[in-house]
Structures are given as structure tokens and as C-alpha cells.
Specification:
This protein has two domains: 12-148, OB fold (Dihydrolipoamide Acetyltransferase, E2P) (Beta Barrel), CATH 2.40.50.140; 173-319 and 382-501, Bira Bifunctional Protein, Domain 2 (BirA Bifunctional Protein, domain 2), CATH 3.30.930.10. The chain is 38% helix and 24% strand. By secondary structure, the protein is of the alpha+beta class. Helix 7 crosses helix 8 (173-195), helix 8 crosses helix 16 and helix 12 packs parallel to helix 13 (364-375). It has an eight-stranded mixed β-sheet, with helices on both faces. The two termini are 17 Å apart. Residues 1-7 and 506-513 have low confidence and may be disordered. Strand 4 and strand 5 (131-142) form a beta hairpin. The chain contains 17 helices and 18 strands.
């Protein structure tokens, strides 16, 4: 079977090379005739296909100039039809020798699927009521030297679609729609926050310390300073510095980088939004999440009820709220309020055959987190706030006054996945310093995801930070939810991919073995 697949690939490659040679020969002939399409620097189009189709009565029998890529052609002797696709729609054109003249019509017939052309003519409807353009003039604007995938099969190979997104966007209109919705969602989030008085800011992507989250960073080297630097794993610490500096409401939406595994929910670089509001707490952030999610759903879906992977999700504000400990008790009957020590918690984990990843995490708080992962997370289909996280896994959140083993932190879950993380922010510099020390100890013990000591951030807290609510949302996951996309790669225009050369070398080595 593998041999047949390889043979088919070789045949396809030979066919493509043959077609590319034909197209290059056509280009060479045009260039010899002084008609090189690549020399055209500008084309004055008057309208898009979408405008014309949406307002036919306004354009009927009027001259327009459009431009786009040929996606279909029907040559019928002295008259032909071709369909072009522009940025928002496709439209048919009637092209005849009587309108263009013999020389121009002959040239038109040699153009290929994929070529980009301009058409000037008047708008009309065919006998089948299809809105079309009766061409008076056609212009070749760019020659496509590589053929597009065959029309009826399109670009179906998922790996190839991600690698060649430019072809994916041409061949699969629904993909284009996904990224248009992505833009609308991001714009809506900014609109909501701007109207609430939040200031959008930019913070460094390169930092001398990795902090603000529990994650493995990418490391690079700054030649001029001769120091190692880290691509940011979060924007949290710098945004909280701005709260110290006197801004009451700030946010940043941008790329985050984490040197971790890749799957349908994780890409090494991804988009988040973090926002911080002085004099607020994590309950205020719950309300913010409900508002952002529900309004984004209304913007792109027209409803707060959306379908995700066959399940109806109701994003109408008023989401379920339950503590982490109570959610575990509800799911499996274990009540961690009755378990007081690390030793009891570790013994219970062993009894339930829940593996603790390393010795440094043999604490009651870490075990609570593991129980939640095992018994609860996958069951949270409808939007749910899980709140009051153990202090061991929340180094930047404020302790609960009623139980200092817990923190005022929540995560929001939908469809068995985490979408956001929020705190009543820790503003006690002495407590923060001690927690950073614990992170440093864990890092020195081999935990590559543990944070580092940030002395400057401690100094900022010593200046004084007001009580603050902070929130982080995974933008890509929100877009996956609202576009019903299975994988994070479906909502990233250019997801991280293993180089093809590396893949081919791996296959060769396996074959040799």
C-alpha cells in the first residue's frame, strides 16, 4: 500500500511539473510579445463581486470593473463563460469574440484556472437568472504558474491545508469565513473593553525573566547584550506593573509563546487577552467573561446559543459557579475539606491510582488539582466557573481570607475545556516573594515550567498595588468555540508545522530500517 501511495505521488508530481512547464511556456510567449502581466503595477477596479450581487438593481446594465482569480471556464467557440473569485464573492462573466475582438478573445482562451484577471463590462442576468458581467474588456493581471487542486476535490489533505493556507483559502470558502469571524470576534472584544474605559497597551515579548504563568519558555540569545532572553509565556507581570503605575484598567491582546506539546488545543504560539482592573475582584471577572463570550456569540452567530461539535452550548449570562473542592465531591464523592494533610491526600491519590508527576508536587493542593483533572474537567459541558483553587497551583492569586490554603481564583470551562483563568490578584509583596521562592525551589528541583524570582515585580508591589481583578482568556479557543472548529490549527492562519524536509527524512529512515 505504501509503495502504491508513493507511486501515485510521483505520478502527480510528474503531472504538475508538466502543467507548470506549459504555463511557463505561455508566460514566456507573453513576455516575448511585450505583454508580461507581472509588469502591471495597478488596476482600477470599481466594485467587488459581493457589492454587485447584493445590489443588482443598482448595477443592472451599468458598467463595472472587477478583478479576481479565474476559478472556472467554459469555452464555447466564439463565446465563453468564466467565473472569477475576489475577496468576498465569485461572479460569472460572459466573454465573446464580438465584444473583445479576435486577438483579445484568442488570448483569453489561453488563460488558465488560477490566473488573476480584470474584467470591464455591464451587469446583467442570464436566462437562468444568474447575475453576471457582459465583458467588453479583459486584462491578464497575474499568471498562475502552479495549478490549483482539481475543482471538485479541492484541497482536502489537512496537513497540506495548514501548510499552504493560501491555497486552502482559495479552494475552501468556509475557511475564509472562519478567519473573517475571527477578526469580528477580536474587534468585538476590543469594542467592549474600550467602551468600559480599558486602555489597550503593548508589553515586551522578549524578557530577561520567564514569569506570569506555569509553562516552559522558549529561550533565545541577545547578541548585543550577550544575555539569554525568554519569549513571553504571559503578559501578567508587566500589566500589573501598569496598575501599580496608576492605570485603573488595562488590557493586552497578543501572541504568547510556550515551548510545550502540540495537539488540537495547543500551538507553541497562540493569542490571549489579559486584562486587569483596579478595585475589582474575581467575581467581577466572572461577569466580564459572561459578557465577552455572550456578546461575541451574538456578533458572529446572532444568538447566545451555539453548536459546538454536535453539542448545544448556552452562553447566556448566569453560568454555573462551583468551588473546585465541591465539584470533586459532586463528581466522585471525595471531600477534600475532610482531608487536612499532604500525607492523607497523597495516600488517597495512590488509592485511586492517580499518578503524581513528581515528588515536588506531593501536596494536598496538587492532589486536589489532579482529582479535578481526572474526575471533573471532561464533564463540564455547559459554561462553568470553577473557583477557589489551591494555593500550591496559584502563585499569583490572593489567599482566601476564610481558608488560606485556597486562593481567589477561577477557571472557566466549556465543552470539557478550559477557556479562561482569573484571580483576585495577589498584592502583598511579602507573600508574593515567598511564593516566588517556592517556584524557584521547584525550578531548581527540575520543574522547567516553574516560575522565576522577579525582584523588580516585588519592588513594584512594595510601591503598592490596589486590590485588583485580573483575567486571561484563550482567544483561539474562544474562536474555535464560535466557529465550531475541531483544532486550534483551524483558527490559526499559519499554525506551527514540522518542516517537510524533516518529515521526509524521518520517513526515509523508517523505510531503511
Amino acid at each position: 500500500m505504501q509503495q502504491n501511495n508513493n507511486q501515485n505521488s510521483e505520478v502527480e508530481e510528474l503531472d504538475i511539473n508538466h502543467l507548470m512547464k506549459i504555463r511557463r511556456d505561455k508566460l514566456a510567449e507573453l513576455q516575448q510579445e511585450g505583454k508580461d502581466p507581472y509588469e502591471i503595477t495597478k488596476f482600477n477596479r470599481t466594485n467587488t463581486a459581493g457589492e454587485i450581487k447584493a445590489n443588482y438593481e443598482q448595477f443592472e446594465q451599468k458598467d463595472v470593473t472587477v478583478a479576481g482569480r479565474i476559478i472556472a471556464k467554459r469555452i464555447m467557440g466564439k463565446a465563453s463563460f468564466c467565473t472569477i473569485q475576489d475577496s468576498d464573492e465569485k461572479i460569472q462573466s460572459y466573454v465573446s469574440i464580438n465584444d473583445l475582438g479576435e486577438e483579445s478573445y484568442k488570448a483569453f482562451k489561453t488563460w488558465d484556472i488560477g490566473d488573476i484577471i480584470g474584467i470591464t463590462g455591464f451587469v446583467f442576468k442570464t436566462r437562468t437568472e444568474e447575475i453576471s458581467i457582459h465583458a467588453k474588456e479583459v486584462t491578464l493581471l497575474s499568471k498562475s504558474l502552479r495549478p490549483l487542486p482539481e475543482k471538485f476535490h479541492g484541497l482536502k489533505d489537512v496537513d497540506l491545508r495548514y501548510r499552504q493556507r493560501y491555497v486552502d483559502l482559495i479552494m475552501n470558502p468556509e475557511v475564509k469565513k472562519t478567519f473573517e469571524m475571527r477578526s469580528q470576534i477580536i474587534t468585538e472584544i476590543r469594542r467592549i473593553l474600550d467602551e468600559k474605559g480599558y486602555l489597550e497597551v503593548d508589553t515586551p515579548m522578549l524578557n530577561t525573566i520567564s514569569g506570569g504563568a506555569t509553562a516552559k519558555p522558549f529561550i533565545t540569545h541577545h547578541n548585543a547584550l550577550n544575555i539569554d532572553m525568554y519569549l513571553r509565556i504571559a503578559t501578567e507581570l508587566n500589566l500589573k506593573r501598569l496598575i501599580v503605575g496608576g492605570y485603573d484598567k488595562v488590557y493586552e491582546m497578543g501572541r504568547i509563546f510556550r515551548n510545550e506539546g502540540m495537539d488540537i488545543r495547543h500551538n507553541p504560539e497562540f493569542t490571549t487577552i489579559e486584562l486587569y482592573e483596579a478595585y475589582a475582584d474575581y467575581h467581577d471577572m466572572m461577569e466580564m467573561v459572561e459578557e465577552l463570550f455572550s456578546k461575541c456569540a451574538m456578533k458572529v452567530k446572532g444568538s447566545t446559543k451555539v453548536n459546538y461539535q454536535g453539542q448545544e452550548i448556552d452562553l447566556t449570562p448566569g453560568w454555573k459557579r462551583i468551588s473546585m473542592i465541591d465539584s470533586i465531591k459532586e463528581a466522585c464523592g471525595v471531600d477534600f475539606n475532610e482531608i487536612k494533610t499532604d500525607e492523607e491526600a497523597v495516600a488517597l491519590a495512590k488509592e485511586r491510582k492517580i499518578e503524581i508527576p513528581d515528588k515536588t508536587k506531593e501536596t494536598r493542593g496538587d492532589v486536589i488539582s489532579l482529582f479535578f483533572d481526572e474526575y471533573v474537567e471532561k464533564t463540564l459541558v455547559q459554561p462553568t466557573f470553577i473557583y477557589d483553587y489551591p494555593i500550591e497551583i496559584s502563585p499569583l492569586a490572593k489567599k482566601k481570607k476564610e481558608d488560606p490554603r485556597l486562593t481567589e481564583r477561577f477557571e472557566v470551562f466549556i465543552g470539557g475545556r478550559e477557556y479562561g483563568n482569573a484571580f483576585s490578584e495577589l498584592n502583598d509583596p511579602i507573600d508574593q516573594y515567598e511564593r516566588f521562592k517556592k517556584q524557584v525551589e521547584a525550578r531548581e528541583a527540575g520543574d522547567e515550567e516553574a516560575g522565576m524570582m522577579d525582584e523588580d515585580f516585588i519592588q513594584a508591589l512594595e510601591i503598592g498595588m490596589p486590590p485588583t481583578g485580573g483575567l486571561g482568556i484563550g482567544i483561539d479557543r474562544l474562536i474555535m468555540l464560535l466557529t465550531d472548529s475541531t483544532s486550534i490549527r483551524d483558527v490559526l492562519l499559519f499554525p506551527t508545522m514540522k518542516p517537510l524536509g524533516t518529515i521526509n527524512e524521518s520517513k526515509s529512515r523508517k523505510t531503511e530500517k
